[in-house]
């Protein structure tokens, strides 16, 4: 039955010379026997026919156009395409796609987060536009490790140590940037001129002083200049914290990025970093935690050959205790086999390492605990009264490899509720890194696969030159 219907439908679509069909009683174009088929049955037929043929059928009549343009049909096609396309994985969720198309289509200003898409969205048009998006190269240049890859794939293609000090704006910057980007393009075996690029930039020069603004502009201009000199057609440079927030399907909140050297607490409202409110910085990062675990292992006569082994043990055995004092009374022994060095067994070292995020003095570090820095940032956000809704900063998104340690989110949420007054602590939610160590990369992936990409998100070489001429002092 379905096969016969499909053949008849296809014949009616492909027959360009047939006379115009008569009108039905309700005024719409009559398609004979098809008029007797319930709409829900026709929708099932259209799903079998597929998006290309379904789109062609919209030319038959107004009724068919109305039927074919139904959002549920094209949502089905989008979801089915993502499931079948081997470039996508299960982690590429429909919710993320819906969030991106609802809130990120026009770049700035961004829409606030709601659970429902705006009524003007046409998923038929979105499907068509997404099929034409060129995709991009994504380069997440973290302070410790760089993740890079093709935006159409399910995860980064490769990772490498970042051999570039992003905060250094001295004269050799351009040559070092060129070496950095050229190495990535070489490893990916693609030409720089073949597609746009999305580059994530670590949060740096944290304050809102004129010198800090100038340094940020210099770095961004250096990135644009270098990539355009390499003939990249369009560039989007955006900071890691904002990308992590997008990956969590939010446009406003506080991002806690536990980086290689330091931890940044970044307030973001509608996609824009609120530097006037204040970006808090804690002198604790992944390197400090690895060094502290090394000290604990040495104190307990656990022999190892390299710092890489210590880092591997940290990533695979360590966690943050919800209640530190209670954890001291438990049997927490666990083992892990490090490649080339055999088995290691850790006990209290497992949660003592992560504890320095909340009690830095344990490692001899003079700094605020993570919860204290986030609470201070929230206090500043509350005092700034930037919106009528004081809840925008109550969503905390974690990012960075060390933030992936089990227990960080739960412990931070608990400490914030204990530290802040009820008026501020009510409604606080701490979200673990949505995509683990690749969270910022996935935020860039959301942008790169938007139906409007590269459009509003990217700058072309011509636009960059025009902007440079306008801002150049004479």
From TrEMBL:
CDD domains: ASKHA_NBD_AtArp8-like. Residues 31-77 form the F-box domain. This is Actin-related protein. It comes from the Eukaryota. Belongs to the actin family. PROSITE patterns: FBOX (PS50181).
């Amino acid at each position: 039955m379905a096969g016969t219907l499909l053949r008849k439908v296809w014949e009616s679509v492909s027959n360009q010379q047939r006379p115009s069909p008569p009108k039905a009683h309700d005024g719409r174009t009559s398609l004979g026997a098809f008029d007797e088929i319930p709409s829900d049955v026709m929708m099932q037929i259209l799903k079998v026919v597929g998006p290309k043929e379904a789109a062609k059928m919209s030319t038959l009549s107004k009724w068919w156009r109305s039927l074919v343009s139904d959002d549920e049909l094209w949502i089905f096609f989008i979801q089915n395409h993502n499931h079948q396309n081997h470039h996508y994985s299960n982690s590429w969720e429909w919710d993320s796609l819906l969030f991106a198309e609802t809130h990120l289509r026009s770049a700035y200003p961004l829409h606030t987060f709601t659970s429902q898409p705006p009524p003007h969205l046409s998923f038929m048009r979105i499907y068509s536009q997404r099929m034409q998006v060129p995709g991009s190269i994504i380069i997440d240049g973290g302070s410790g490790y760089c993740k890079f890859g093709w935006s159409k794939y399910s995860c980064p293609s490769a990772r490498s140590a970042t051999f570039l000090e992003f905060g250094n704006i001295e004269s050799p910057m351009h040559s070092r940037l060129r070496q950095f980007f050229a190495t990535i393009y070489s490893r990916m075996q693609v030409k720089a001129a073949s597609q746009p690029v999305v580059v994530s930039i670590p949060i740096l020069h944290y304050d809102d002083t004129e010198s800090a603004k100038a340094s940020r502009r210099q770095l961004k201009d250096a990135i644009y200049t270098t990539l355009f000199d390499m003939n990249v057609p369009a560039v989007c440079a955006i900071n890691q914290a904002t990308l992590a927030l997008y990956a969590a399907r939010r446009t406003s909140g506080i991002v806690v990025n536990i980086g290689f050297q330091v931890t940044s607490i970044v307030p973001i409202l509608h996609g824009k970093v609120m530097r006037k409110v204040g970006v808090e910085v804690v002198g604790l990062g992944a390197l400090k935690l690895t060094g502290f675990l090394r000290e604990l292992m040495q104190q307990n006569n656990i022999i190892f050959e390299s710092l890489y082994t210590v880092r591997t043990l940290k990533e695979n055995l360590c966690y943050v205790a919800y209640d530190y004092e209670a954890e001291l009374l438990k049997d927490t022994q666990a083992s892990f086999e490090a490649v080339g060095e055999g088995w290691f067994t850790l006990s209290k070292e497992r949660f003592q390492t992560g504890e320095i995020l909340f009690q830095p003095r344990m490692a001899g570090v003079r700094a605020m605990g993570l919860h204290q820095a986030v609470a201070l940032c929230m206090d500043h956000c509350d005092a700034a009264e930037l919106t009528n809704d004081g809840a925008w900063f109550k969503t905390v998104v974690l990012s960075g490899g060390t933030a992936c340690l089990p227990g960080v989110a739960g412990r931070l949420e608990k400490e914030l509720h204990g530290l802040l007054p009820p008026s501020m602590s009510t409604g606080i939610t701490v979200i673990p890194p949505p995509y683990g160590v690749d969270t910022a990369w996935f935020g860039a992936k959301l942008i790169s696969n938007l139906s409007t990409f590269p459009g509003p998100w990217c700058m072309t070489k011509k636009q960059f030159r025009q902007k440079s001429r306008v801002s150049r002092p004479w």
